[in-house]
Every structure is written in C-alpha cells, then in structure tokens.
Amino acid sequence: MSVISLDRTSKKSLTRQLYEQMQQRILSGVLTEGYKLLSTRAMANELGVSRNVVLEAYDQLTAEGYIESRTGSGTFVAAGAVYAAKESVSLKEVKTIGFKSFNPNIIDFRSGVPDLSQFPVNQWIRITRDVYQEATPAQLAYGSPEGRAELREAIAEYVRVHRGVRCHTEQVLVTAGTTQAIGLVSRIMLHSTNKNVMLEDPITSDIRYIIEGFGGVIHPVGVDENGLKTKDLRKLPKPLFIYVTPSHQFPLGITMPIQRRVDLLNFVSKTNTYLVEDDYDSEFRYDAMPVNSIQGLDPKRVIYLGTFSKTLCPSIRVGYIILPEELIERGRRLKWFADLHNATMDQLVLARFIKKGYFARHVAKMKKIQKRKREVLIRSMEKHFGDKVSILGSATGLHLTARFPGVRFNSELLQELEEKGVKVYPVEEHAIRAGFYEDTIIIGYGMLDPGRIEKGVEILASVLQLN
Fold first, then answer.
1. What domains can be seen in the chain, in order of their start residue?
2. Which residue has the higher pLDDT, 393 or 354?
3. C-alpha closest to that of 460 among 108, 173, 4, 63
C-alpha cells in the first residue's frame, strides 16, 4: 500500500484522514480490485495510531462498499469502486440572484422596503422567548401546509377588519412571501390547456417572469390614470386569471376607482375567470383611510395576496393567499409539494404579535413616519424641479413615481447618477411593452431618513439640470 501520512495538527480526526486517503486510493485505482489490506492491528502499528482509529476507518469504508471482509482470509478492495474524480466547477461566473444589499455610500431610492430601523425588536424578542419556552412537542414536529391555525386566524381577522376582505380562516394559505404566493397561484391555475394570463403593464417584472416560468402566456393590458384599462380586456383571448394591484398599482401608484373595479369584476364574472389581487402595501395610505380590497366585492372570483414584508420586514418571509373555496384543497396540496410548511415557531411568534395588537400599532406608527418622509420628498422635488416633473402615485405606499418629460433614463444616465451617489429605478424596466416609460422613475423612500432624501433629490437635480 502507498504510504499514508496522518497530520496530528489537522482539524480533521485521524479516522477521517485515514478513511479519505484510502478512499481516494481506491477510487483512483492505486489500490486495485482484490488488493488485500493490512489487518487493523498491522495498520495501526504502521501508522502509530490506536487500533480503534483503523477499525472505525475500515468500518466506514466497508459500509460504503469500498472494501469487503472475507471470513478467514482478510479484508480486500471491493470490485467496481474505481471512478476518476472530475474537476471542480469554477464559481467565477456564477451570477448573483435576488436583491443586492444596500450600499451605505449610495442614496438608494429602492422601493418596497420599509424603515427597518423601526422594527419592534423588543416586543418581537419577548414574544419569541415566550413562544419557545411554551413550545409543545406537537409544535416542534411537522405542521400543515396551509400554516398554523393561530396565524391563519390572526390574518383572517386582520384583513376582515382593515382591508375589507370577506373570508374565513380555512381560506388562508400561509406562504413564504408574495414571490412564493405568485408561484403557487400559477401552479394552481395553469393546469389546463388555456395558459393565457392578463397583466397590468407596467407591472413588477418578477411577477411576469414567475408566471412565464410556470407556463403562462402573458397578455399585457395598459394602465391609465384609473388603473387597468378594462375596456381593453375584451380585445384579448380569454384568460385563466387577471393580475392586478388595484389599491396601489405598481409601479405607477394609481388607486383604481370603484367604477373601474366594477367593470373588472363584471368581466371576470362573465368570462368565468379569476382576478388575482396583490395588496402589497395598501396599509400606508396617507391622506385618507386605506381603500378596501376588491376581494370584498366578490370573494368567489378573487384570489387575494398579502405580505408582511412591507409592513414589518422582508426577512421574516411571511405572506398569505386568501383562496376562493373551490381552490383551497388544490392550493394546500401544491403548498405541501413546495415546502411542507413554513417555519412553525416563526408563525406562532407572528400570530401572537398580531393578536396582542403590536402589529396594528406598528403599522399606525410607520404610517406617520412614512408620511413625513413622503412630504419631505415631495417638497424637495417641487423645490428642485418645479413644473419640470409630474409626481404620480404619492397617496399610498412606500414609493412614488416621477415623470420628467424629455429625459430618457437610459443606462448611461443611471450610471452617471450612481457615480454621483444616487440610485433610482426606471419604470421602463417593469414595462412589458417597451418605449412608453423611458422618462419615468420609481423613487422609494421607506429606508431613507429625511436628510438623505433631500440630499438625494439635490444630486438628482444637479445631474438632470432641468432648470
């Protein structure tokens, strides 16, 4: 046998080192089929280690099929164990997927992120400690795909009171945020020969990619000052579902009025299809009460999506779907196939956080904070741009959009802005049909303090030079 060298300073145990070196010699063919190994005692003497080290290494190699013991004859290399190791995959070209972390040197007007410095840490820690201290064996075991009853009850009560949703607890399906919810809805719906899906245009690009990834055929429908152009629905093939953000259209920020909602629901009813209502940040309506959901008008034809990413924080990864009754069973079954269920203890913490009233108070507090930031942003925009800018969608949510007629936010301009210390996001990136929103950007203010908001607008003005 080739010389085996054991390093007593290594973090790996002597047993592990011996096992790996013998394994590699067998795989590479250095130790050939039928080769007789030293006895465990002889090997231990040769290496200067205890016999237990060798016994454990031989036992592991035997268990994995590399070697075999023959009664009365000894231990031999088994047949069929030669396999030349392949080269490792280079990771230099791996593309990062998902959100990039915030650069502290950049004033980042990213949308959809609340002020995470305001997260109610103390209450969350207290509830987390209590939940774990009171945990039962059943709570620590596997759960149900639809989510814990405690959290589903809390969600159902909250959306009934605050969003005008009409539902019972059994309709609630807990998800890992809206991204998983969209995937699940796609899987629930896209199982027939009809794959047509109508989307608002523009719409969050991720939604389009997820639905397409599950086989959906996208038919974009334009948006005007009242939201989705319902008159255009009749010009397109019958859809399986229509995806809308009626309380705060993303990215333009439009709130759909009742007349347009009624027209949309009439179309859904006549064509026997479904409406998917994404209610992602509607709690933050600043000049009036939040607008009620469309779901409350027709619970049988509307699939309602909600998330805690915009109201608490994205990292807890909790969202939910309110399913019409006839879709509940299929939804639960597909959720089971996806991930069994969300983390049980996190669900119990959130459920108690809601039921104790902390969540409603946190939303009320954040509404005041975000309203002040919005006012600072609008004043700064008016100060630096005057009538050179049109501000849209500022009544609700964590962002607004700004249209600068005559400006084209191409890659060169965006790069120049970032080099000067400001990052903004073009609406055009979310447009399904290109060329209509090149002069419009999304300006999120949730994560920025008033001083950085003012500074960011000042830099934006210095680069655009519109006055």
1. 14-77 (1.10.10.10), 107-113+364-464 (3.90.1150.10), 118-360 (3.40.640.10)
2. 354
3. 108
